[in-house]
Amino acid sequence: MYKLGKFLLFFGLVLLIAIPVLAQTENDNSQPFWNIKPVYFYKTELQNIDGQTLTVLYKNKTYTILVTDKTKLLRNFGSKSNLKEFGVGSILQIYGRRENNTIIEAQLIRNKSIQKRKGTLVGNIVSLDTATQKFVIKSSNRTNITVTVDATTKILQQNTAKSFSDLVLGVKVVATGMWDKSNSTLTEVSKVVIMPAIKSTTTPVQ
To answer: What is the value of pTM for the model shown?
Structure first.
């Protein structure tokens, strides 16, 4: 009886998994569930975008990738993305199911070429452009970052509201926004804090 009970339990679990897949397979005229295999492409190159359909090159073979409303699109660092950010030449990681030998329905796509994430950067202003509301800071690792502000950006100094005109060359700022590592830019900036000048502690020689 014990062995029979284990068999019935196992058989029941198989049915719970198989019945939904069989129903989906019958409705969408795709492959039988026993032929559906998960697919993972570690590094593919995006060659074309046509609406919700991508063409990629993987191991010298061309594949068609179907993007549905259930497909998760991510940037390299894991934040949400969309197809508007994708471009020909992007490097993608793709997980999905195989429709046939060359067509994949994607469940998750990570675009490794979109190296954007929310970040806070610190640096001294080395250039300003009032017309475009942009300024460049030199960060602690000596990288120049172009910061773009807009009407929604809060510029503060000691908790007092300031404007773009209060930014001056050489001043140290802390800026928070969407950091694009590959392009050295900070956009969607929510806040810029102007740091107080460090007073010299050097005693004059008498």
So the answer is: 0.59
